[in-house]
Every structure is written in C-alpha cells, then in structure tokens.
Amino acid sequence: MSRGPRAGARPRALRLLRAAGRGLAALWRAVVFAFTRSLQLRIIALTSVLTVVAIYGVGSFMSQQIARGLFEARRNSVSNQTAGYVAEFESLSGITDRDELVDTLSTQLRSKVSNSPTPLRSIALEPVGGNRSVPPIGAFPYGEESVRVADLPGEFRSAVADGQDGEQLYESVELPGSLHSPGLVIAQRVTIPQAGSFELYVVADLEKEQDTLEFVQRALLVAGLVLVVLVGAIAWIVTRLVVVPVRTGAQVARQLADGDLDQRMPVNGSDEIATLAESFNDMADALQDQITRMEQLTVLQRQFVSDVSHELRTPLTTIHIASDLIYESREDFDESTRRSAELLNSQVERFELLLGDLLEISRHDAGAAQLVTKPVDLSEIVTGVIDTVAVVAEQAGTELLVHAPSSPVMAEVDRVRVTRIVRNLVVNAIEHGEQRRIDIYVGSNAEAAAISVRDHGVGMSEEQVEHVFDRFWRADPSRRRTLGGSGLGLAISLEDAHLHAGWLQAWGRTGEGSCFRLTLPRRQGQAIASSPLPLPPADAVLRGGTTLVAGPSTSDGSVRVQTGSIPIVVEVAEHSAEAAVQQGGARSDGAARSGPAQSDGAQSGRAPGPGAEPTEEGP
To answer: What is the mean pLDDT of residues 211-225?
Structure first.
C-alpha cells in the first residue's frame, strides 16, 4: 500500500516533463520561425553574437595581461624584499650564544612581518641538512591564519633544497582561510654566521591584487554589456532604415499584383533608398500605363468583334437565304454551277457558325453570359448528343460507346451550354480519333458530376496539351478540318465550364489518344474537391517519371503550372509521365483547379444510361 502515492506521482511527473518538452519545442519553433522570417531580427542577433564574441576575446586578453602585470609587479617587490632580508641575516656577527641568536632571529622576523610594505602571511627560517644548532624559526601576522613551511607544496620545497646559494625560487599558492585568497611564496638559501645554512621562506598575500583584478573584470563586464546593448540598438536602427522601405516595397508590390495600380512607395530624402523608391514608382507608372492601354485595347477589340458580329448578322442572313434558294435550285444548273452552289451553301453555313461563336465568346469576354440552370440528367444530354452526331460518326467510320450508370446522373446545369460542351468534345474526338473507338463516360459522386470523352487517335504532346484551349489554336496547322469548325469550340467550352464553376481538363499522349473531362458541381454554389472520373483515364498506359515540374499542390492533390497566359494543371500520379490540363475553377483567383486521378470513379463498363443503349455508330 505504501507504493500507491509514489506510483501515482510518476505519471504526473512524466506528464509534467512531456508538457515542459512540448512547451520548449513550441518556443523553439516560434524562435526559428521569427528568425527565418525577419531579416532585421537575424541582423540584430548576428551582430550581437559577434559583438559578444569580440568583447569576450578582448576582455579575456586584457584580463590576462592585467593579472600578469599585477603578479609580476608583486613578485618583483617581494623578491627585492627577500634579497634584503637575506643580506641582513648574512651580516649578523658577534652573537655566540645560541639562545641569544634565536631571540635575535625571532625578533627580526617578527619585525619584518609587521613592517613589510607588502602584506606577508609568514616568514620562516628552515635549517638545511644536518644543521641543528638553531631550530626552525617562523613569524606570522597577528589575526591571520598561519602558513607553515610544512603546508607548502613538497615539490617546491624539494626544488629549494636542491637550489644553489643566492638562487630565488617562487611559487603561486592558495592561502588558507575562508576567502582562499591567492598567495606568493619566494624561497632562497641563506648562510647566517655562527648558525649555519637556512632556507628562507617569504609568503606574501595577493588579496589586494586579486581585488584589483576582480574590479577590472567587473568593469570590463559592465562595459561589454553596455557595448552589446549599444551595438544591438545601432543594428536595430540601421536595419530599420533599410528593412522598413523594403517591407513597404513588398506591400506595395503585393497591392499592385492584386490590381491596385495606384499604390506607390513613399520617397523620403535623396539617398539610395529614395532612389530605389523612385525607380520602383517609375516602373509601377510604366506598368500601369501599359496595363491601362492593354485594357483599353482589349475593350476596343471586344467591342469591335461584337459590333462586327452584330453588323454582319443581317447581311449574312440575307446571303444565307439567297444561298439556300440557289442551293435548292442546283439541279437546274450544269455540273460546274451546281458544285459552286454546294460550296457556297457550305461556306455560308460555316461563316454563320463562326459568327455565332464570335458572338458567344464576346458575350463571355464582356461578362454578359448568363446561366439558366435546372436539374438535368447528364446521361440524357450525352444520349442526345450521340443522336445528333451519329451521322457524322458513321461517315467518319468511328464507333461511339457510352459508359454510364443505370441511375440518373442529376445536376443543376444549363442544358444548352452543357450540350454544346459535350458536342464540341465528341466532334473533336471524331475529328482526331483516326476512325478508332471513342468512349464516353458519365459518373458522379456526392458533390460533382462528370463527363469524359476518350479517343484513341493521334493524341497530343505535352506542349499541345498546354495550348489546347487557346482560341484558334490548332495542334497541326497542316491538318485539314474534315468537320468544319471555327477554332473557338474548346475555348467556348472552357468559358461555359467556368460559368458553371466547374472544371474542363485535358490529357493526351502522342500516339495513344487524348481524354477531355468535364466536371460540374451537382448544385450551384457547391465547391468541387474531386472528380468522380479519373484523369489520366483508367486505360492509359502509365510510365515512370514525370516530365513537368509543377508548383504547390492544390487541395485535391493536383499541382498548378503557369504557362504563357493559360493557367494549366498537371496531375502528378506515381509512375506517371502524363500532363493533365485544367481550365476550370473560380475565375476570380486567376488559376485553374483540378481533382486528382482516381480509379474509383462512377463507371459501369458498358452499362447503358437511362433510356439509351450503348451506341455503336460506324461500320
């Protein structure tokens, strides 16, 4: 039972130790964070540390020199006194009585102790060898603890015994007492008439020298602390003069990057910092001027396209009516005129399609495009598109295959716009599918619905993937358009996906086909974190390594790359060399967002969608 309190105290002690460890770790992380984030703090810390090291080195050197000087001065003084004592003892004569000689020597030793200009702790005469005529004699100051010859180091006494006449030896010792003050022992052999040879030991107290040295060290310490504080304050002031304008410049640069082009750095004085601020402001003025002119030019271009498109609408309608009349009467013409009528009708239709696309893209550019959303089954949209392009697919010799779940895939979307996106993707796949099968997948999860169009045709290189959504861009300019098109289909599809706050992504590899994935929120205003369909597609052959270096990961595991004027997203999967491009997400942040490739998308092989069998147009 006696172990209970002790056993309970151990866990508490361990918890306290762990808490203390966590607190120290948090403090260390905070210090490291502040040290790495603040240039001013690093400069002040490094300057203070270097100042402390310099002061410590200089102070140690000065302290050693002062200590050596005080010791040498005291040693010379005591050495001269000892030499004088030896001369006096050797000049004694005329004393033949042993007791009288002992009294005389004792009296002289006491007199020397009391009258010495240097504080002495003892003076002693120690007979040498077989000299027994006079016993050892010593004198000690009153009130001080005595230092006897027997208390001195044995090596020192042996060196004195082996020394020559007239040779002085000295040794630093620690004197007995509560203060343990330092002391100095000087010894010399002396020959006294009528008494024989003796060893003279003079023990001096160096307490005053030690006090002087400690005073100097305290003065150096105080001066060092004051100097460290002063240097730290100077470093803080100097770095502040530099860091504050740099911080201001960084803040102004961020505001300029956010679109506030009227921000400028304050200019104070005419020094280098002021020159830097003036240069920065000149650069900001030039950028603002260029951006303003580009914005004005863009507005004029958009207005021009819109105006021209609208102005061309009426005459084009008239031309189209006339073309239809001529086309309907083509059987009455000769072969050459009939062929011209057919070409005229087809080109007028193409021109009308191009004009419609220009009007639509101008509405997107002007921000005038509006969504009319309602709950729609995406499988029905896919089925409707398949029905409309069935003849085109049959003429191209392409098989269309739908993979959709048996249950409806509902989402709040603009039916017209989503239908246009899917039609553009399917027609684009037929155009580049090389008469191979095209797979159309439909899937959904809790937050998003997706449609992907996978072809197995010529495919795309990474450079082509980066530009696939550019306006009027063609992967192979020498390749003839077999199905017409204005060159704006994918660009308009991208804008329609943006309008839904969705994603439109592309993946491709040369010789292995390509895949376009449309991901839309199931409810308007709902954010998308991942797509229910994989990209790269599940049937893509993955290869080791990656070919693009991308930026920081997004919340869904994809990574962003900025190429030219188009933000693209490269989905990096292990052992994958594919580049997946996304042109989606909120337009306000200026970057695209993508979900990672997943293998658990809502797919069901070749299961038909509601009300539609898997279509297989083509030969």
So the answer is: 91
Q: Is the peptide bond before 536 cis (omega within 30 degrees of 0)?
A: yes
Residues 6+ apart with CB under 8 A from 513: 433, 436, 454, 455, 456, 457, 458, 459
pLDDT at 331 over 50: yes
Angle at 198 between CA 197 and CA 204, to 5 degrees: 155
Hey, what are 53's tokens? Answer: 């090291």
Query: For residue 277, how many C-alpha atoms fall within 13 Å in the half-sphere facing its CB?
Result: 22
CA-CA distance, 412 to 254, in Å (whole number)?
Answer: 37
- The token pair at 253 is 């640069």
Own/partner pairs, 45-51, CB within 8 angstroms, 24+ separation: 47/231, 47/232, 47/235, 48/228, 48/231, 48/232, 48/235, 51/227, 51/228, 51/231, 51/232
**Residues 418, 394 contacting (CB under 8 angstroms):** no
- Polymer length in residues for the chain: 619
C-alpha–C-alpha distance, residues 577 and 509, integer Å? 9
Q: What does DSSP assign to residue 602?
A: S
Q: For 159-212, write each residue's pLDDT tens digit.
A: 888 887 778 898 888 888 766 788 889 998 888 877 778 888 999 888 888 889
Q: In this structure, are residues 512 and 534 in contact, taking their beta carbons and an 8 Å threshold? A: no
Q: What is the DSSP string of 528-541?
A: ----SS-SS-TTS-
Q: Where are the alpha helices (DSSP H) in 489-579?
A: 489-499
Q: What is the DSSP string of 49-108?
A: HHHHHHHHHHHHHHHHHHHHHHHHHHHHHHHHHHHHHHHHHHT--S---HHHHHHHHHHH
φ, ψ dihedrals at 441, nearest 5°: -110, 145
Q: Are 531 and 517 in contact (CB under 8 A)?
A: yes
For the chain, the distance separating the N- and C-terminal CA atoms, rounded to the nearest angstrom, is: 92
pTM check: above 0.70: no
Structure tokens given for 481? 């358009």
Question: Encoding tokens for residue 595?
Answer: 């979900």
